[in-house]
Amino acid sequence: MARIGLLNICKLPGMSSHEVVACVRRIAGMKRVGHTGTLDPVAAGVLPICLGNATRLAEYIAAGPKTYRAEFLFGLGTDSHDMEGQISARLDASALTAETVAAALPGLTGTFPQRPPAHSAVQVGGMRSYDLARRGEEVELPSRVVTVYDFTAVDFLPGPQARLLADMTVSKGTYIRALARDLGAAVGMPAMLSFLARLQVGDCRLADALTLDEVAAAAEVDNLDACIRTPDSALTHIPALTIPATAAKYRLGVVHTMDGDPGLYRVYQRGYFLGLGQLEEGRLRPVVNLYPLHIDGVYLNE
Where in the chain are all domains bearing CATH 2.30.130.10? Predict the structure, then answer.
């Protein structure tokens, strides 16, 4: 039976998300593999990888909030707002205090418009913004509304290039590099992102993530299935509901009648995660059905 599920991968710095997908394809011997939202090559941490039919859930996983740990460096600015760019500003940050930085964090918490960095993958006239920026062209991207649910200082190191270690949970589309830029502006000092690790996506946590080497080692001893999680582990931002065992036709695309608040739900039956459904006016319509007939060889209408 084709594998369906999720690998909680710990991406190491230096690899692109697409390179991780290519490695998983080789390890698992599968073509249908996809990531759930890119993580910059210089960043590390949780990168959920969908296998088989679970790739149909990738966009819904990517839409959920994500938690990061970041280090912001003050007194030094670059054109990309991270370590990869060219230095654009330099000031002595010795006068900057932990209290001043902490006082600026509430202003970058909540829902607000954020301007993406010029060095980003946003499309401009059919080209990537970062390609235009690298050619020396002026790029001014329109702002987009993002949400920073939490922005908490963990540690502060004063000095000519002061450093802040912070944790944050953000919505899809939030650029942590742009937070560095805007935090610097808030304290009157150039700032950049010097380190980034993704700590959590849904129930996929960094402490439980596997490196590609660990996944490859499991595959070598025919134990890859032990590494695979059910895809709902990265969908905890979507509420859940359970349909009765008698509703077997739901898995074939038939609308199921039930009460509840309208919206998108994770759908379960007999303890199994079936996929996603949209509830409107008392009618649950399948949106993504992962297992139309059976799960792990068990026919749910038996």
Answer: 240-299
Cα gap 192→184, rounded to integer Å: 8
Q: Residue 250's closest CA among 293, 298, 281, 280? A: 293
Contacts of 22 (CB under 8 A, 6+ apart): none
Fold of 5-64+202-231: Pseudouridine synthase (3.30.2350)
**pLDDT of 300 higher than 70:** no
Task: Please check whether residue 50 is in contact with residue 33, taking contact to mean a CB–CB distance below 8 angstroms.
Answer: yes
Q: Summarize pLDDT for 135-182 with one digit per residue, the tens.
A: 455 556 678 899 999 999 999 999 999 999 999 999 998 999 999 999
Spell out the alpha helix ranges (H) of 64-122.
98-104
Which residues are catalytic, by number? 40
Residue 73 CA to residue 163 CA, distance in Å, equals: 5
Extract the tokens encoding 121.
């993958």
End-to-end Cα distance, the chain:
19
